[in-house]
Amino acid sequence: MTLIKSISGIRGTIGGQVGDNLTPIDAVKFASAYGVWLKQQRNKENYRVVVGRDARISGEMIQNLVMNTLVGLGIHVIDLGLSTTPTVEVAVPMEHADGGIILTASHNPKQWNALKLLNSKGEFLDGVEGSKILEIAEQESMTFSDVDSLGKITKNQAYIDMHIDEVLKMPLVNKKAIEHANFKVVVDGVNSTGGIAIPLLLDRLGVHTVKLYCEPNGHFPHNPEPLKEHLSDLSQMVVKERADLGIVVDPDVDRLAFMDEKGEMFGEEYTLVACADYVLSKTPGNTVSNMSSTRALRDVTEKHGGSYQASAVGEVNVVALMKQNQAIIGGEGNGGIIYPELHYGRDALVGVALFLSLLAEKKMTTSELRATYPNYFMSKKKIELTPSLDVDALLKIMEAKYAHENLTTIDGVKIDFSDSWVHLRKSNTEPIIRVYTEAPSQLEADSLADKIISEIKAVANI
């Protein structure tokens, strides 16, 4: 089964059986549930939803199904066409819309797609809202509008430019310094909408851009997750072009990673660290990331006199804690920058503008900047379990075993040691325990993960 229903939306592979994959019928079913839920929120005459998509091959088909389903419910649609996740998030409040839908499976391969659902603030739905939509989707019947009450579709393909306008208006974006630095940058847009948005932003910032895989045709030239092992072409191009850095985003442009002038990864975990360092140096305050993100953000935050807190994994959880903690920047270690100055959503365009401002003001090379941050190394492993095993009970045993350490249990079990940590989480979709560790060296991170895995297997007799 490759249809995954969650509080933030529905994702799956294209084709196959209804209910087991993301078929046209499933797309219509969940778009209908979302539309019905929206209309339950407020009794009004006109409802509006912003819809955009990344460049994956199935995107146009799924978008047409979703938009016309909303039309059938009497909801007006603002069609952004090819867009980015953060662009749709920005557009929802600018359009005074009731919600938004982004059609993207983020970093998943090309056979996947998804409906990601937003509220009227342009933010992902919380658990209560998402659960209600899943409940509505399972109802036997839904009521659609009559012929005189159908919605209308209005195209507006200016929003990437409008999004860039909003990024450049942010007070901390030092456009003058970036222009003066005369940067040369290679951009890997993984043949999706980042290939449109990032070069446009860089052009507005006065950056000389070399495009790599920036044709938005949905044929991903490599695994679209922006990790080192997928980016050999970018590394070679950065060195060949003698560029100052490389930039890579995922297909929907909410994750961001950098490569230094030597063709080495800056470190996806360190995207947020660097951007937070810059923001905190100008406007001291608090930060938030999820529990599986690097400890370096805590170090940088405390260096600037702020307070750091960790949330459960998931963007909606990070945003909730950011609001509670009045954090001025936050995000996730997967290269997701959340800067409330513009909006509460991961935004690679915001990250690029902040990072280049920092680099221009520091007057350092990208590798020199990376050397100024604490060095941590992560290991990400998993334990496959039989479905009969009680994962919660296993995590409780590990919690008791390490009760003398600094524990956090809001999302699995995180054990903080003096110079390292381990985070154990069960998967919501398969019988596995995810084991993430961080330590001062890769060997130590891997050894800690292997030690914990051995202890769990001993308890579970596997």
Automatic annotation (TrEMBL):
GO terms for biological process: carbohydrate metabolic process; peptidoglycan biosynthetic process; UDP-N-acetylglucosamine biosynthetic process. The keyword Transmembrane helix does not apply. One of its GO terms (molecular function) is magnesium ion binding. PROSITE patterns: PGM_PMM. Residues 391-453 form the Alpha-D-phosphohexomutase C-terminal domain. Residues 8-141, 164-263, 270-375 form the Alpha-D-phosphohexomutase alpha/beta/alpha domain. It comes from the Bacteria. Keywords: Isomerase, Magnesium, Metal-binding, Phosphoprotein. NCBIfam families: Arch_GlmM. This is Phosphoglucosamine mutase. It comes from Hanstruepera neustonica. The gene is glmM.
